[in-house]
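Before we proceed, please read the two lines closing this message. Report back on whether the structure tokens fit the sequence:
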Amino acid sequence: VTHITMVSETEETMNVRMGKFPRGPTLFFRLLHYTLAKDVRAAQRNPRAPGLEFATAPLLVLSGFDTERPEHRLLTTYL
């Protein structure tokens, strides 16, 4: 195992921790909102796709990060 992702939920928040073994780093995120893929699909009136768009990994776009800030540079390198 080289990477681990943990999701935890309390009454107030939902958190995601992403860690790299053996020496880190460990990233911590607090989720404010999320939507399940099945709910997105169900909300569409006239879907224009065959329904397989959630079967592959999403495209990760990292443009717009201020890489001068050390925390943003760490995040873009990790992802």
Q: What stands out?
A: The beta strands are 3-9, 14-20, 26-31. The CA atoms of residues 36 and 42 lie 10 Å apart. Residues 70-78 form the longest helix (9 residues). Helices lie at 37-43, 70-78.
